[in-house]
Design goal:
By secondary structure, the chain is an alpha/beta fold. It contains ten helices and nine strands. Helix 4 packs across helix 5. Bound molecules: S-adenosylmethionine. The site of S-adenosylmethionine has 18 residues, from loops.
């Protein structure tokens, strides 16, 4: 059966470093596309948090291609080592779940793999319509479906899901104060709101899994907020991985919703 490494190869999600990616772009994109990319990148990197610029960045990455591969796949490739380490860990935990929610699913690069491995159903939710189109196109099994919506207001009743996953998306919607690559991210009210909303849709004894890179004690704040929302921590792992600029650490916390 297909493992995560083989799946990522098939999806052209191949490990690369940021500088290699940029030089590849320089030699492959035409002038018009390169300036579209550059504008989106500049806004994304240099602007104190701006939701619109961040979504625009995803739109451009999903619309431009090199050799038939959307740039977004190259971007996930920058994180390939993280994907290879965290996805099997998460899968292990959600294995018996009948209904799973993956919030911030993006292009479904993780969601579609979970779908391949799960007997139950999985719904991938994201705010970004263009990314969801790619997710749908790349869907491999019928137990996966996609829905547009926001983590702040999940379109589901209480206590619905056996498991909910929220990985590498908690940093979205604005905890950065100096542009997305600054390290001045801090935990604030908005992150708490999201965790509360995610906990709401998980059934009692169901599972909530949150993964993120974490800055400035962010890791402990996520765990504390999970606890504050009746989520008992079952397991917490920190994965060191080769990042696109430096090596990084991804934290994944698995919790169980109390009755
Ligand atoms: C860095 S990607 C993470 C993708 C994937 N979950 C992973 O672990 O690699 C963050 C995703 O969060 C989505 N997002 C941003 N704000 C959101 C919101 N308010 N509700 C739902 N999704 C959101 C973005 O569109 C993007 O697809």
């Amino acid at each position: 059966m297909l493992d995560i490494g083989q799946y990522l190869d098939e999806e052209s999600i191949v490990f690369n470093r940021w500088n290699d990616f940029i030089s590849r772009l320089d030699s492959s994109l035409n002038d018009q596309d390169r300036s579209k990319f550059q504008e989106a990148l500049t806004n994304y990197q240099n602007t104190p948090w701006n939701f619109e610029y961040n979504q625009r960045w995803y739109d451009v990455l999903s619309q431009l291609e090199i050799d038939g591969v959307p740039l977004i796949s190259y971007i996930w490739g920058l994180d390939r080592d993280q994907i290879e380490k965290t996805v099997p860990f998460i899968l292990n935990h959600i294995q018996g779940s009948g209904l799973v929610l993956d919030v911030g699913a993006g292009t479904g690069h993780k969601t579609n793999f979970y779908g391949l491995k799960l007997e139950g159903k999985i719904i991938g939710l994201d705010v970004n319509e263009i990314m969801l189109k790619i997710a749908n196109k790349k869907r491999r099994t019928n137990n996966v479906s996609y829905l547009r919506g926001s983590v702040f207001n999940l379109p589901f009743e209480n206590d619905l899901f056996d498991s909910a996953i929220y990985t590498n998306s908690i940093q979205e919607d604005g905890f950065w104060s100096g542009g997305v690559y600054s390290l001045y991210g801090s935990y604030d009210e908005r992150q708490s709101e999201k965790i509360k909303e995610l906990a709401r849709v998980v059934r009692p004894n169901g599972m909530l899994i949150i993964g993120h890179n974490g800055f400035d004690g962010f890791d402990e704040a996520v765990i504390q907020t999970m606890k504050d929302n009746r989520i008992k921590i079952k397991e917490h792992m920190s994965f060191n991985y080769s990042g696109y600029i430096n090596d990084s650490t991804n934290h994944v916390t698995v919790g169980i919703k109390q009755d």
